[in-house]
Amino acid sequence: MNALTEAGQDTRQRLIDSARQLIYSRSYADVGVQAICEHAEVKKGSFYHFFPSKIDLTLAVLDHIYIEFKSDLVGRAFANDIPPMQRFSRMAEMIYQFQKEIAESTGQILGCPFGNLSTEMSTQDEEIRLKINEIFDSFQDITKQTLIEAVELGEIGDIDVDATAEAMYAYLEGVMLMAKTRNNAELIKTLAPAVADIRIPPQG
Question: Under 8 Å CB-to-CB from 99, ≥6 apart: which residues?
Answer without folding.
Answer: 109, 110, 111, 176, 179, 185, 188
